[in-house]
Amino acid sequence: MMIGTGVRVQTGNSTGTPLWNSDVYAWTDLTTGVYYDMVMTGDGTGAAGGVKIYIDGTLTGSANGPTTSSWDANDVTAITLGRAQDTVRNTDIDVNEFLIYNDELSAASIAAFFTGASRTEFASTTALNATEWTDPGVANVLSGTSYVVEGSTVTGTYTDLSSTDPGVANVLSGTTYVINNNTLTGTYHDPTYTDPGVANVLVGTEYVFNDATLTGTFDTSTDFTDPGVGKVALGTNYLFSGSTLTGEALVATIVTGTAQTVNIGQLKQNVATILEAANTTTGSPIDLSANLATRVNTINRYNPEVMRLDHSRLPAICIYTDRKDPELDDIARNMATGKRRAKLTLRIAGLVWSTDFSDASTDPADDELEILMENIERVLRSEDTLFGQCRWHVPKGITYHTAPFDEETAFRVGLMDLEIDLQY
Fold first, then answer.
1. By the 8 A CB rule, do 153 and 147 touch?
2. How many CB atoms within 10 Å of residue 127?
3. What is the pLDDT of residues 11-39, one digit of tens each?
4. Pick from 118, 144, 198, 309: most CB atoms within 10 A?
């Protein structure tokens, strides 16, 4: 309201009769040409101060309530602002946003919403009685539910949300889509897979393929000519789960490691070297030919059963391999790395030939054989690791055999099983 230098408010009917016990005066300095918010309230009773005037949110005057208990708004045919019924007390004013409320506004509401430059729209929800406003906010409106908005009853309705959602599988990276009125941009997402491959699908097992969960099933329509692994023929085609496969030779997977081999030839050579070194009159620890009628002629590394010796080369010693018994010696991740322990049996044959039968009660060939075998055992005891090639060695048995050649001669053989303990 634009007004002069002061304000006096009086209400009356069409005949000029006041509706209040006395006029309400609000004397205050006002500036010409400036808009002011002016609010007049009445509590509808005859109580003192029941009628009040506020200018820009501040209470500036009050009076007693009306003498009449009420008046009927339906009787009102016109409202005159700015002059009295006598046409003498007129005011030159410019009125904007003239409102009539059906309830008394509180001083707090008036101070908050009718204050100079900070004023808000007169129809503010806070300034109204709670029964005039039950708007829950757009996001909380329920379809079919009634609400009171600015004193009017309205019913919530459903509005279709804008959407250009193409579906997850069809989203393009960098493309813009509208989903529930929200604008979103497609981004790339690596699909989840647990696809084991056709040949490895198990019936009834679930797998994720392009983010979709699938369950393995058996396809009875697919032909099979799978003969089984043990019967696959090299170069032959077979049908397996609808795929054509060709039989191939299995290629062994070679595992490298620290495994070693036993140098059996070197072991035999070392035994022969020890015996040869002792086959002298100054041999240590003894002479290999001590107490023999004829010195040891040859020391060989072969089996005399398959290569017969001429009697001119006797006495002789033959060294050859009889057997090897390996076993695991530690715990390792594979056989190529784990250590093994073995019992290697070298057979040492002592061979003698004798034609000197001077006494019918004795056999000089047997005597010679026994001496030779004892000498062999004693000499080998001097080198317990066979020059570092084994852990230890020991004879596990010595046997004596007779092989007659004719009435006048005799061939004798003694066999020693030398057990050698190895780790490799």
1. yes
2. 21
3. 555 454 544 444 565 666 777 777 778 88
4. 309
* CB 206, CB 193: distance < 8 Å: no
Q: Which two tokens stand for residue 53?
A: 């005037």
> Which residue blocks in 87-241 are alpha helix, DSSP H?
107-113
Instruction: Render pLDDT for 158-182 as a digit per residue (tens, 0 to 9).
Output: 776 677 878 777 888 888 888 777 8
The rounded Cα 13 to chain-centroid distance in angstroms is 86
Domain segments of the chain as ranges: 1-128, 223-251, 264-423
Q: Do residues 73 and 36 make contact, with C-beta atoms less than 8 angstroms apart?
A: no
Among 3.30.70.1700, 3.30.70.1530, 3.40.50.10420, 2.30.22.10, name the CATH number for the domain at 264-423: 3.30.70.1700
Nearest to 248 by CA among 220, 262, 229: 229
**How much is the pTM?**
0.42
Strand boundaries in 176-261, DSSP class E: 176-179, 182-185, 206-209, 212-215, 237-240, 243-246
| pLDDT score, position 81 | 73
